Amino acid sequence: MINLTSETGFLLMGFSDDRRLQVLYALLFMVIYLLALTGNLLIITIITLDHRLHSPMYYFLKHLSLLDLCFISVTVPQSIANSFLGNGYIALGQCVLQVFFFIALASSEVAILTVMSYDRYAAICQPLQYETIMNPKACSRAVIAVWTAGGLSGLAHTAVNFSVPLCGERVIHQFFCDVPQMLKLACSYEFVRELAMAAFTTSMAFLCLISIMLSYVRIFSTVLKIPSAEGRTKVFATCLPHLFVVTFFLSTAGFEFLRPPSDSPSAMDLMFSIFYTVIPPTLNPVIYSLRNEAMKAALRKVLSKEEFSQRMVYLKSLFKL
Asked: Is 152 helix (H, G, I), strand (E, B) or coil?
């Protein structure tokens, strides 16, 4: 084992010490990663190319896909490389960047999900004022606020987390530099600073959750008043996938971050970390595209031979210029 008593880096224990299992996990993660990349890139491409999807709902969905694409890229490629090489070592600088981007993107994802719930509330409960409320300038400001809040959260967590002195060997029982696992390495007398930061972030996430729940209470109370069963079905088909994504992401992440840290590593730590780092970015494209008729129609149009031929002619004309 690499000597990690010095401040050179950390050792990620990953899923197994068995070499064959390490390769198996790497191959499985590679397949999942490629599926997530393909799905999210497809959504970004479809929404960008199809002018019928240039509305606030799909504008926010495009940014959610971009966040998902970046979010899964922070942890999974490093884990795949470590598993193939049979070496869990990660340099200090890499770990710092991983913590920053992980927290920043996770915070941004919670924020964009909150904005998306408000967008659905405005569209369903205030349809006459919807275009005024969710005008292009307001949407742009909301997205800027989402990315800015995520970046500030990442900076604060990283600054506090890596200013805390660590005691003992730098071994992290996880496949990435996970903040709850890194808390176990902190010296007891400095532990309170990171706990205070975690409590603040948790409070912000809880406020976002309350806002989302209030939006959906109003949405569902309005939907139930719609006399047409077809109209209710259409609204539920739009809102329920978003509610599922929010519930799954926040519940699994909240369970992992709020439960008291244990001295002994467990398979549950790895399982829950997969639930909020790998599964949501992979499932989001499926949830939002397969249940959405507009997305399916746009996908068929983009993949059609006629559309493909038109795109090729357009690209050739650009290169000639």
From this structure: helix
What phi, psi does 91 have (nearest 5°)? -65, 160
pLDDT (tens digit, 9 = 90+) per residue, 70-94? Answer: 999 999 999 898 888 888 888 888 9
pLDDT for 108-120, tens place per residue?
999 999 999 999 8
Mean pLDDT of 37-55: 88
Q: Let me know if domain 9-320 sits in CATH 1.20.1070.10.
A: yes
- CA dist., res. 95 & res. 88, Å (int): 12
Query: In 3-state terms, the chain is what percent helix, strand and coil (to 5)?
Result: 80, 5, 20
Residue 100 corresponds to which tokens in the numbers above? 């920053």
Q: Hunting for tokens 């069963």 — which residue is that? A: 229
Report the distance separating Cα 320 and Cα 246, nearest Å: 46
Q: Tell which residue, 69, 73, 19, has the closest CA to residue 44.
A: 69
Instruction: Say if residue 19 is exposed, middle or buried (CB neighbours under 10 Å; 0-12, 13-18, 19+).
Output: exposed
Q: Give me the residue spans of the domains in the chain.
A: 9-320
